[in-house]
């Protein structure tokens, strides 16, 4: 077999292995290692490239952001800040049709700015928002759909683990990726709000719900007590990066320390909870860095096979325009999103398309936002919509089936696709804050 044939077989093998349940880093690492061995018929070369991949990836200083932002998100979640911001949003939208859904989107957007985790958002708001919507006779599918749809904001609004992973694959600044994610994340949140408002008038049966009654407004003191801690974290972390006062690593360390201080002052952080947060941070960090290491050897395998150059030659000979290249890329991302998780998609597909995008003079930061948003649609689509599975498992309610979660999330997946098209058509939406 030629190197290109081996490369093609390896990509297909990785997708198949991941789909049948093989741990993603194992699939990436083993297949890439064996492919290099077969292409060069040299076991020592494969071993040396593996050593280089380890040294060039997890040893980089910027990846210190992974444990720091992970720990900050876990501490904030345990401190109950997600519940607090939801209560404030819910009070503000209590008289609007679908108001609890709008409150969930708003709270998720704020919560995402300090956690960076779709899974954490889905878990927290499945417990907080869905029971309240069911109490007020909202359609169960709408209730779980809102939580599933808005949970993806955690992977777009910085800090985001997916933006960190992309920054490694594309060799871009983590700080630039974080700043570029702000406007697209807010745009998606606003699109969700508009969609809910529209559904409340066009398809009221799908939304359901009844008036929450004459609930009293929160006092200014109550609002401040529930919102100021999380707003302070956002200002310190994102403001520090945006102004240049803090590097992403320093911002992560500052945010983690500030989050721990807030949790301690609110008396929500016991020694047991602190230890659990540390352990979970270790597990998540090890998993992400293992992914990054195996992605490094995968990229080297693709380079040795010449697969990216071959793909570029094919597309050049076919004289495909920018529109068709992006059309193929987005379709591929959405298709793989029904099979693989976001990290796998980024690690497998991005190295193939970067050599095509870079010569076109396109911003790789913009391309990263397109990649993450496109891959995140997969969190809401069967059969592997991870956010949907998390919501179903968290609720543990026989009245709501997994099908209900997927059906409820479908309108929000469509909204994501519309926002993705807008981001492709108008790159300035992603790059405005960087100029």
From TrEMBL:
<keyword id="KW-1133">Transmembrane helix</keyword>
<feature type="transmembrane region" description="Helical">
    <location>
        <begin position="100"/>
        <end position="130"/>
    </location>
</feature>
<feature type="transmembrane region" description="Helical">
    <location>
        <begin position="277"/>
        <end position="301"/>
    </location>
</feature>
<feature type="domain" description="TRAP C4-dicarboxylate transport system permease DctM subunit">
    <location>
        <begin position="11"/>
        <end position="428"/>
    </location>
</feature>
<keyword id="KW-0472">Membrane</keyword>
<feature type="transmembrane region" description="Helical">
    <location>
        <begin position="6"/>
        <end position="38"/>
    </location>
</feature>
<keyword id="KW-1003">Cell membrane</keyword>
<feature type="transmembrane region" description="Helical">
    <location>
        <begin position="223"/>
        <end position="242"/>
    </location>
</feature>
<comment type="subunit">
    <text>The complex comprises the extracytoplasmic solute receptor protein and the two transmembrane proteins.</text>
</comment>
<dbReference type="GO" id="GO:0005886">
    <property type="term" value="C:plasma membrane"/>
</dbReference>
<dbReference type="GO" id="GO:0022857">
    <property type="term" value="F:transmembrane transporter activity"/>
</dbReference>
<comment type="similarity">
    <text>Belongs to the TRAP transporter large permease family.</text>
</comment>
<feature type="transmembrane region" description="Helical">
    <location>
        <begin position="58"/>
        <end position="80"/>
    </location>
</feature>
<keyword id="KW-0813">Transport</keyword>
<dbReference type="InterPro" id="IPR010656">
    <property type="entry name" value="DctM"/>
</dbReference>
<comment type="function">
    <text>Part of the tripartite ATP-independent periplasmic (TRAP) transport system.</text>
</comment>
<dbReference type="InterPro" id="IPR004681">
    <property type="entry name" value="TRAP_DctM"/>
</dbReference>
<keyword id="KW-0812">Transmembrane</keyword>
<feature type="transmembrane region" description="Helical">
    <location>
        <begin position="178"/>
        <end position="202"/>
    </location>
</feature>
<dbReference type="Pfam" id="PF06808">
    <property type="entry name" value="DctM"/>
</dbReference>
<keyword id="KW-0997">Cell inner membrane</keyword>
<feature type="transmembrane region" description="Helical">
    <location>
        <begin position="405"/>
        <end position="426"/>
    </location>
</feature>
<feature type="transmembrane region" description="Helical">
    <location>
        <begin position="142"/>
        <end position="166"/>
    </location>
</feature>
<feature type="transmembrane region" description="Helical">
    <location>
        <begin position="361"/>
        <end position="385"/>
    </location>
</feature>
<feature type="transmembrane region" description="Helical">
    <location>
        <begin position="321"/>
        <end position="354"/>
    </location>
</feature>
<protein>
    <recommendedName>
        <fullName>TRAP transporter large permease protein</fullName>
    </recommendedName>
</protein>
